[in-house]
Amino acid sequence: MPKNTQVMLMKDLSVELGSNKVLDSVNLAMMAGERLAIVGPSGSGKSTILRLLAGLLLPSEGSLKISGIDQNYLRLDQNSPPDVRLVFQNPALLASLTVKENVGFLLEKQKVLPEEIINKKVINCLQKVGLYDVADKFPNQLSGGMQKRVSFARALISDSKKGKGSIPLLLYDEPTAGLDPIACTRIEDLIIKTTEAAEGCSIVVSHVSSTIERTANRVLLLYGGKFQWDGSIDQFKQSENAYVKQFRTGNLQGPMQPEDS
Ligand SMILES: Nc1ncnc2c1ncn2[C@@H]1O[C@H](COP(=O)(O)OP(=O)(O)OP(=O)(O)O)[C@@H](O)[C@H]1O
């Protein structure tokens, strides 16, 4: 994919929730090949950004473009929605459907491809995340870790109605929260593998330093409704910027204080 293709653009974008201005005139351009980590203290608006990109929320002011198209409607009201795939913190699988039905849900709904092709695609996606012989099982017959893998396999399914040119945007919401360090490494590997296999761009929201460092090539720090810092992962690891330093070290002293957030 050409590196100069713009995948997403936020222009003077604000979001007000009740009396709270969660995002305050933010600007952000994301290009093909970028893997972003969005970091910031609790309540700084990270999930709000993911909700905007997933089409669950619209900006109060300003504009959001995905693949060059202005997002003026919520996702369910769009005729030709952009290819944005959300991997939730918990696997969010439908308990009454088999693994195969969960992963192939979009393709079944679209009724474009024949059943045997859908089956092949689903098995292929499951194998890519290291799952074998689970297609006919129900989610509650799998371990938590396996369920998480199923949710990654679901993000690998490409929309049969999308042209080859479209670049999928994969969103990962706190994918390693509460996991032990070894499970973290497995999920981080899976994020990298899934994003590569989908030939997409990724945005990871995470507080976990290994996840930020291993899955992203660019980091944005969100606080007070604005991106306070934007740079490469190598710059993030060394930056003397007061926000970045406080986030990295967990210092109580610094520009980010709980009463402000
Ligand atoms: N429906 C809502 N109505 C009013 N305020 C809301 C609503 N949803 C979220 N907020 C507020 O918006 C702000 C941003 O919330 P958001 O969940 O995006 O933060 P976050 O950075 O993802 O936090 P965390 O790291 O704790 O998940 C918070 O102050 C929150 O209280």
TrEMBL record:
Residues 8-249 form the ABC transporter domain. GO terms for molecular function: ATP binding; ATP hydrolysis activity. Keywords: ATP-binding, Nucleotide-binding, Transport. The keyword ATP-binding applies. The keyword Transport applies. InterPro entries: AAA+_ATPase, ABC_transporter-like_ATP-bd, ABC_transporter-like_CS, P-loop_NTPase. This is ATPase. It comes from Prochlorococcus marinus (strain NATL2A).
